[in-house]
Amino acid sequence: METSQSNDPCTSPSSSASVAGDPACDLVTVPARQGLEAVDILRRGAADAVGPVLHDDGCDTLGFLVPAGTAAGWDVPGSTCTGTDGHGLRLNPEPPVEGSDWLLPPGEADLATDPAVLRRALGEAARLIAAADSCR
Which value, to the nearest 10 degrees, does the dihedral of the CA atoms of residues 96, 98, 101, 105 take? Predict the structure, then answer.
């Protein structure tokens, strides 16, 4: 199992996003197509299981906020989980990455997406995309 962490500015949280008292989060980044499919899957589920989601146009990615510490065990191919080394991304109405915007902003979603639920949704999204692409 390989833990994926990134220093790429398209996936790294910014410390300027901190707000005292907000829960700290890590960030799982995926290609936008897979991420949008996963958001649909999560929102159709029995429980409202999706937390805040960032969309970064410049990198064509979606970022799911997950509980701090998730990066230590994240192993989903095609995604990156940026750990914050104890300095977790904190929820703020302003997007933490320049050139990004909230797809699901804080306050309109759960605090963070459950990593196990996200892992299943990303897997299902990848299978749906592969099936759709094979029909072309």
Answer: 10
Q: What does each C-alpha distance from 108 to 4, 53, 96 come to in angstroms? A: 28, 10, 17
Q: Which backbone phi and psi does 89 adopt, to 5 degrees?
A: -60, 135
pLDDT digits (tens, 9 = 90+) for 113-130: 999 999 999 999 999 999
| 62: β partners | 30, 55
Predicted model pTM: 0.76
Q: What whole-number distance in Å separates Cα of residue 52 and Cα of residue 102?
A: 7
How many whole angstroms separate alpha carbon 30 and alpha carbon 42? Answer: 15
User: Going by C-beta distance under 8 Å and a sequence separation of 6 or more, which residues neighbour residue 97?
Assistant: 9, 10, 11, 12, 13, 14, 54, 56, 63
- Is-contact 65 53, C-beta < 8 A? yes
